[in-house]
């Protein structure tokens, strides 16, 4: 449709990746992927929950309260990961001016905010029995809270601007500026040695966690990943339909269905 | 290049002065907010001394934020901003000029006034020094980050509050280290690390903020 | 010099126009006509580089204007619907600031002449807040008197709110500009007589 | 300046600023940013007087006792080099154990006792079943675990 | 892990409130998101033409 | 008469809702300001508990104040206000309608949210009740007084800060008695006297404020 | 019906005009002419009751308009330089609000007709923020289509920004209004032909 945008040229050059960057081509692809991701999410979640509650043993220090880990850690990981992905899409859209990028960023934000909220909530609930407090203004906790505000700011900004193209470009600027916060969250426990524990799982050393516990955590993390993909894709499909309401292919879809 | 920058700063300063009492208003707002707290919380001298750095910094932050709204909005409303976008000067230069002018009209006066207010809270001598220094390093960061927020919310309705929403989270680190440094000094510890972190923020936002503000401005018109 | 190829513009879900092409050489005038809401302002903003076209491209001396940026802007004078007049500044100060944005200095004498010509001499020192509708428009247009060295003028309904005398002055200014080899793009709903043979017309609908 | 030169100048300035930022951050982390002190630091009089700060370390084994009023507890916090006695009136968190990490927030009084307003348990990043913990403990120290 | 009885399982060694509070709210959040997604998707469908 | 009032309130509410997320933004601003303080002051639970009522009240006050700017300013800018001045409805009615709408969009949501925030500061049960009640009585006063300030600063440049300057001193008594009542309750004393004083303020400003705002509006155009 | 005696207006230290008197009866048109800044807008605002004259008084059916207040305002429709159009509301909503301020209800059908007549039917549901300059002016003028029962119309440069067709529509509206016994006060810099014999002209300078 639009001659200037990258994806329009892509077809001719036969670059498959770029071709799927066109909303029209991506829409059915996303539709095909969603059931798979959703199914995998359910499978991993059921497996993860089973391991979490019926295989993983009691912890030697924390007793049963540690079972919050199976939600908290995947949620915390997703909160940071999704932000980076969102910012990457946003930057991509800002530079290359592809239409799908901005839609993907907007589609990821609510799910990211959701996981951030869950990480905060479960962290607080876990903190009470273990540390003895719901909340401290510790670097990890504060920066995670800022992450939530950044997500909310992104959502508020993009919904406050009603021209979608402008909205996603403005959101992109905010998302990119906010990326600085992610390494701060990640390294905060190292830089400020305060209340939150250090990493149990890291690339550089063996995990300091019993294997069954670790398995449960990974299963739940996988479930969170799959869920995020499914949710973001589902949302992006709605966004594509909303934005391209008047495009021929959408109207034909309505007529043909 | 420098001449152009100077002329932009001069224009904005002249405009602020013309809007009678703009600077004065900021200062009075700052003073009032700082004064509100003892009223809201109740005047216990000990309590006040502990709270002082935090209160002064929060007040500075709110004062800076309130004045942000006019950084681009009035130029946007009357069409001057679109002239700036297609001006012979690079947009980056204009944005930097406006940020400098904003700081000169809001951050700098606050910084100069803060020691006096600190005195009122019975802060020790060196803590006052650190308070001033932290504001001197921190308030430019407020102007820089604020410019991005102001550019992003241009022409968006519900501007004021949305701007606050975008900008305040990014202000949090500045607040923590600014107030933290003063508190550290008041307790006989060095404020060095806090101040150097503030400096780091300043350096980073000097690089990122003007770029982001420029992009945001162009986006506002696209 | 200025060349637009196959421009299209979309606002919301509406395609305002597509396939608009034109070329403008020294001394030529382009009149953009059309009823309210047909996209004249949108077209002029594209050409000024304020927004980007949905399709097509715009070239100045052969180069894309979005690449040229300030180097294009330096050659350009744009008067839009908004006057870009600061309420707090006097007509004189407003003019000085506008010249600085255009990257040119101006002397008080030059400015006084310009304001005299456009008919604002009596109110040159009054804050623009107090000026009447037409006087504010005149402040915006006073720039034309000093922009002899700026080749491309883009004027979006310059005559709105002007009285007959001021209208004649502005027409004369455009005439002079074209005569010395400048280019102008103009929209207006009023009937005005600009004395040039080199006139293109784009009619939007 | 030509546009290309200008872009180069901007890039150089940007990199320089980021370098400065990195240097400042590194400098900052050389020293104490939060009011968090180890017993050694407190003993070396680095901690503030009459101001709330956080004291972090291990609860020394066998140091915990309840005062006659039945509410106040007293224990000793150690970082294996120095020790600081701590008094606290209130409910202890579940993870509070002798030999485990603790963060106490309060003031250091003139008598050298740290009066805590809040005691938080800091735990490490190890998660394992009790049996495994026992085995490790046995292997390391050759003694029976307390629990 | 053998919990013995449902009560034991629900009690979570005395941490029931915290553990179930976490899982419950998470579930609730996901449910809300799915509901919102479904609603948005329904509204976004192009209307059927006769 | 009542129908006319309702239609004005409805218009303003619709306008606020149209500016998407206006209400939500207020709330988030409120939450952020309340969150800033512990960050600036340092997290001592005892201190926090003492400061809580003051902080919540100051935040409510600032949130109300920020939103005041849009009470008349946007209507002034686009000429709607002059149409209101020569409308078939009495100006007083229009002003009251706008004030009611303002409170519904700013004061009321704050009031409903406050107990949750109070909880975060570990305030006792009854104190939470008093906090809500004091906000319920106090926030209308903020809207009423604010309307006078907003009308007075119409079209004056440096509006935002000047408005703050005019209005904050008048807000101080509300703050003192509002926060004072909560503090009294938290300390086991009754909050009755504070609340009745707030009520008195409300009664007085109900009488004076709409009238003063009308006069100020007419003056703005004369 | 409307009678002004010896009006004078001062802005700052400038006396814009003095000794302006006129009387307007049913079916009559008053044209206020003059160059930019001569005080046309100032005069119209005096007559609308928006500001008070430095000297003289204005009476409606014999009573001072400042005493009558809403009772005068109810008889009055004023379109100033500012459009009084809310960016957030659609043309339709803007019209409804304007009618409510005038103390009259309007049905959706009436409004649709009005917008149709003024040429906004296609954009009736779009937030006014997106409308073009001329379309915004049309929203403000759509009120004229519904104001048959309002005897006095005060229109300050209603034709600014309008295209030829819309201009003709507004002229026709004014004609009809005068024909059914309404009164109108008008300023404009454009040449328009309003078909009435009952025309007064005030020339300011
Ligand atoms: C509101 C409070 C909390 C917040 C905001 C929070 C935030 C986070 C974040 C952002 C991460 C991911 C960072 C990383 O992967 O290194 C994380 C990881 C983790 N958190 Fe928390 N947390 C909170 C409370 C807690 C509590 C109370 C505990 C345990 C008692 C806890 C245990 C963990 C664990 C075990 C990890 C995984 C570390 C790893 O292996 O990488 N968190 N938390
Ligand atoms: N989001 C949108 N959805 C639909 N239409 C839109 C949107 N935004 C703008 N428009 C339409 O785009 C057009 C913009 O036109 P533009 O301002 O360029 O008109 P113009 O020719 O300058 O008119 P005028 O003579 O009134 O100045 C208008 O018709 C407007 O209604
Ligand atoms: N404070 C002041 N000092 C001096 N002159 C002033 C002051 N305020 C307003 N004026 C002058 O009063 C006049 C106001 O005129 P008004 O707006 O009524 O003009 P108008 O006839 O409507 O003009 P236009 O055709 O441009 O709309 C202007 O000439 C303006 O310069
Ligand atoms: Mg136009
Ligand atoms: Mg006029």
Features:
heteroheptamer; B: 222 residues; mainly alpha; 8 helices; 86% helix; 0% strand; elongated; E: 50 residues; 70% helix; rod-shaped; binds protoporphyrin IX containing FE; binds adenosine-5'-triphosphate; binds magnesium ion
Q: How large a portion of the residues of chain D is in β-strands, by DSSP E?
A: 25-35%
Compute the number of helices of chain D.
3
How many E-type strands of chain D?
A: 7
The whole-angstrom Rg of chain D is 23 Å
**What is Rg of chain A?**
21 Å
Average of pLDDT of chain D? 81
Number of DSSP strand runs of chain A = 0
Named once each, the bound ligands are: protoporphyrin IX containing FE, adenosine-5'-triphosphate, magnesium ion
Main structural class of chain D: alpha+beta
One letter per element, helices H and strands E, the order of chain A comes to HHHHHHHHHH
Shape of chain A: globular
Low-confidence spans of chain A: pLDDT under 50, at least 5 residues? 1-14
The first-level CATH class of the largest domain in chain D is given as: Mainly Beta
Query: What is the CATH T-level topology of the largest domain in chain D?
Result: OB fold (Dihydrolipoamide Acetyltransferase, E2P)
Q: What's the CATH architecture of the largest domain in chain D?
A: Beta Barrel
Q: What is the average of the pLDDT values of chain A? A: 85
Our measurement of the CA-to-CA distance between the termini of chain D, rounded to an integer number of angstroms, reads 75 Å
Structural class of chain A: mainly alpha
Quick overview of this protein structure:
Chain C has seven helices and nine strands; from the N terminus they run βββαββααβαααβαββ. Chain C is α/β, with parallel strands linked by helices and 205 residues long. The complex binds protoporphyrin IX containing FE (HEM), adenosine-5'-triphosphate (2 copies) and magnesium ion (MG) (2 copies).
Explain what you see.
The complex is a heteroheptamer, with one copy of chain A (257 residues), two copies of chain B (222 residues), two copies of chain C (205 residues), one copy of chain D (147 residues) and one copy of chain E (50 residues). Chain A has 257 residues and is mostly helical. Helix content of chain A is 76%, strand content 0%. Chain A is built from ten helices and no strands. The two termini of chain A are 23 Å apart. Chain B is 86% helix and 0% strand. Chain B is built from eight helices and no strands. In chain B, helix 1 packs across helix 5 and helix 6 packs antiparallel against helix 7 (159-186). The two termini of chain B are 27 Å apart. In chain B, 69% of the residues are buried. The model of chain B has no long low-confidence stretch (mean pLDDT 87). Chain C is an alpha/beta fold and 205 residues long. Chain C has a five-stranded parallel β-sheet, with helices on both faces. The longest helix of chain E has 29 residues, at 16-44. Chain E has 50 residues and is mainly alpha-helical. Helix content of chain E is 70%, strand content 0%. Chain E has one domain (13-49). The N and C termini of chain E lie far apart (59 Å). Chains in contact: A-B, A-C, A-D, A-E, A-F, B-C, B-D, B-F, C-G, D-F, F-G. The interface between A and B is medium-sized, with 21 and 24 residues. Bound molecules: protoporphyrin IX containing FE, adenosine-5'-triphosphate (2 copies) and magnesium ion (MG) (2 copies). One adenosine-5'-triphosphate (ATP) sits between chains C (11-12, 14, 16, 34, 36-42) and G (123, 126, 130-135, 161).
């Amino acid at each position: 449709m639009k001659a200037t945008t990258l994806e329009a040229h892509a077809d001719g050059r036969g670059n498959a990746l770029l071709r799927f960057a066109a909303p029209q081509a991506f829409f059915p692809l996303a539709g095909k992927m969603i059931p798979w991701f959703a199914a995998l999410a359910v499978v991993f979640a059921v497996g993860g929950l089973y391991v979490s509650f019926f295989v993983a043993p009691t912890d030697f220090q924390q007793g049963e309260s540690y079972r919050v880990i199976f939600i908290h850690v995947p949620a915390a990981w997703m909160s940071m990961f999704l932000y980076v992905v969102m910012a990457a899409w946003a930057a991509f859209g800002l530079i290359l001016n592809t239409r799908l990028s901005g839609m993907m960023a907007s589609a990821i934000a609510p799910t990211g905010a959701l996981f951030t909220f869950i990480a905060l909530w479960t962290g607080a609930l876990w903190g009470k029995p273990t540390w003895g407090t719901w909340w401290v203004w510790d670097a990890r906790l504060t920066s995670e809270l800022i992450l939530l505000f950044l997500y909310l700011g992104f959502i508020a900004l993009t919904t406050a601007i009603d021209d979608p193209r402008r909205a996603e470009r403005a959101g992109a600027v905010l998302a990119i500026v906010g990326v600085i916060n992610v390494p701060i969250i990640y390294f905060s426990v190292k830089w400020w040695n305060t209340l939150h524990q250090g990493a149990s799982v890291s690339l550089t050393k063996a995990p300091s966690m019993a294997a069954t516990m670790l398995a449960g955590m990974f299963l739940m993390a996988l479930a969170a990943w799959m869920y995020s993909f499914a949710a973001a894709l589902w949302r992006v499909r709605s966004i594509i339909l909303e934005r391209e309401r008047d495009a021929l292919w959408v109207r034909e879809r309505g007529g043909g269905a | 290049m420098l001449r152009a920058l100077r002329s932009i700063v001069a224009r904005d300063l002249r405009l602020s002065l013309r809007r009678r009492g703009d600077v004065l208003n900021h200062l009075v707002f700052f003073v009032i907010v700082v004064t509100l707290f003892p009223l809201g919380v109740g005047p216990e001298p000990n309590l006040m001394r502990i709270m002082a750095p935090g209160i002064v910094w929060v007040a500075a932050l709110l004062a800076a934020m309130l004045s942000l709204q006019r950084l681009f909005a009035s130029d946007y409303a009357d069409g001057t901003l679109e002239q700036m976008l297609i001006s012979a000067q690079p947009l980056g230069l204009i944005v930097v000029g406006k940020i400098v002018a904003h700081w000169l009209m809001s951050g700098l006066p606050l910084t100069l006034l803060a020691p006096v207010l600190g005195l009122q809270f019975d802060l020790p001598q060196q803590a006052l020094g650190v308070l001033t220094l932290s504001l001197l390093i921190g308030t430019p960061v407020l102007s820089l980050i604020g410019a991005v927020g102001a550019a992003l919310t241009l022409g968006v309705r519900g501007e004021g509050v949305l701007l606050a929403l975008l900008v305040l989270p990014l202000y949090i680190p500045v607040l923590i280290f600014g107030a933290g440094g003063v508190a550290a000094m008041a307790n006989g510890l060095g404020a060095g690390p806090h101040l150097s972190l503030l400096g780091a923020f300043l350096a980073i936002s000097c690089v990122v903020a003007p770029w982001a503000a420029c992009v945001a401005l162009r986006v506002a018109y696209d | 010099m200025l060349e637009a190829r196959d421009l299209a513009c979309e606002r919301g879900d509406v395609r305002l126009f597509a396939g608009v092409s034109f070329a403008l050489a020294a001394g030529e005038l382009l009149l953009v006509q059309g009823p309210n809401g047909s996209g004249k302002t949108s077209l002029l903003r594209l050409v000024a580089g304020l927004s980007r076209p949905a399709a097509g491209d715009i070239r100045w001396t052969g180069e894309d204007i979005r690449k040229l940026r300030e180097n294009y802007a330096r050659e350009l004078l744009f008067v839009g619907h908004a006057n870009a007049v600061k309420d707090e500044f006097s007509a004189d100060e407003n003019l000085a600031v506008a010249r600085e944005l255009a990257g040119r200095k101006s002397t008080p004498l030059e400015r006084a002449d310009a304001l005299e010509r456009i008919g604002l001499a009596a109110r040159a020192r009054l804050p623009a807040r107090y000026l009447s509708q037409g006087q504010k428009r005149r402040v915006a247009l006073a720039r034309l008197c000093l922009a002899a060295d700026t080749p491309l003028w883009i004027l979006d309904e310059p005559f709105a709110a002007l009285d007959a005398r001021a209208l004649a002055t502005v027409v004369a200014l455009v005439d002079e500009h074209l005569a010395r080899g400048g280019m102008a793009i103009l929209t207006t709903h009023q009937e005005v007589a600009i004395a040039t043979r080199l006139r293109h017309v784009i009619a939007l609908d | 300046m030509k546009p290309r030169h200008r872009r180069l100048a901007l890039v150089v300035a940007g990199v320089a600023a980021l370098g400065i930022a990195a240097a400042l951050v590194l400098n900052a982390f050389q020293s104490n940013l939060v009011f968090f002190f180890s017993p050694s630091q407190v003993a070396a009089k680095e901690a503030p007087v009459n101001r709330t700060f956080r004291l972090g370390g291990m609860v020394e084994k066998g140091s915990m006792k309840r005062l006659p009023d039945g509410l106040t507890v007293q224990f000793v916090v150690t970082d294996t080099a120095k020790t600081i006695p701590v008094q606290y009136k209130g409910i202890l968190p579940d993870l509070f154990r002798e030999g485990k990490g603790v963060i106490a927030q309060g003031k250091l009084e003139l008598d050298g006792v740290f009066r805590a307003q809040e005691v938080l348990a800091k735990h490490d990043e190890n998660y394992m079943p009790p049996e495994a913990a026992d085995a490790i403990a046995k292997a390391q120290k050759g003694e029976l675990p307390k629990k | 892990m053998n919990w013995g009885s449902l009560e034991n399982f629900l009690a979570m060694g005395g941490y029931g409130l915290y553990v179930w509070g976490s899982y419950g709210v998470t579930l609730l959040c996901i449910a809300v998101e799915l509901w919102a997604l479904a609603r948005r998707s329904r509204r976004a469908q192009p209307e059927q033409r006769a």
